[in-house]
Specification:
The structure is a single chain. With 169 residues, the protein is an alpha+beta fold. It has 2 domains: 77 residues, Arc Repressor Mutant, subunit A (Orthogonal Bundle); 66 residues, no CATH class. The chain has 6 helices and 6 strands; from the N terminus they run αβααββαββαβα. The strands form 2 sheets. It has a 3-stranded antiparallel β-sheet with strand order 1-3-2. Strands 5-4-6 form a 3-stranded antiparallel β-sheet. Strand 2 and strand 3 form a beta hairpin. The longest helix has 25 residues. It is elongated, with a radius of gyration of 23 Å. Bound molecules: zinc ion. Zinc ion binds next to loops.
């Protein structure tokens, strides 16, 4: 997370949750409602992939739909709309979630003592290290006390960056 820019973050979120197809749909910026079928024709993509991406966008609040019965076929059609006006709200919610996770990580790091193999194979708790007689089961190396202060500082920096983005939204 180096460049924390709202536009990029929302793209990252879409890519992570709705994949490439999600990004393609997002960038299409459709002006009016559309059915998944129409969209799959316009984008020349499999309708199932389009549907999957749309529901993923719906899950995070970036898309919504209404169902309508087609008078001719009797089938239920989904009419979709992308919620461009909700992107800040969605991003803020996701950033707050990420921030909370990082805060929990800090708490975890500061409460627990960790030991790490001198060759970097494993990271274990103090209790586990005791059980292993401070010897790495993988390589036989010594398990050394891990100073978590540097890791904590890094996490704090991440949190600061997130807070900056949130305040600039
Ligand atoms: Zn090792």
């Amino acid at each position: 997370m180096n460049s924390l820019n709202a536009e990029e973050l929302i793209r990252e979120l879409i890519e992570r949750t709705a994949g490439e197809v999600g990004i393609i749909i997002w960038e299409l910026k459709p002006k009016k409602e559309f059915t998944d079928e129409e969209l799959s024709i316009i984008l020349e993509l499999e309708i199932n992939d389009v549907r999957k991406a749309l529901f993923a966008l719906y899950e995070i609040g970036l898309a919504e739909y209404r169902r309508k019965r087609d008078d001719d076929t009797g089938w239920i059609e989904y009419y979709w709309k992308i919620n461009y006006d909700r992107q800040k709200e969605v991003l803020k919610r996701e950033l707050l979630k990420a921030k909370k996770k990082l805060e929990e990580k800090i708490e975890d790091e500061s409460l627990k003592m960790y030991y790490i193999c001198q060759n970097g194979c494993i990271k274990v708790s103090y209790e586990q290290a005791m059980e292993l007689n401070f010897i790495c089961p993988k390589c036989g190396g010594v398990l050394e006390y891990l100073d978590s202060s540097i890791a904590i500082e890094k996490i704090k920096e991440e949190i600061k960056k997130i807070e900056e983005v949130i305040s600039n939204l």
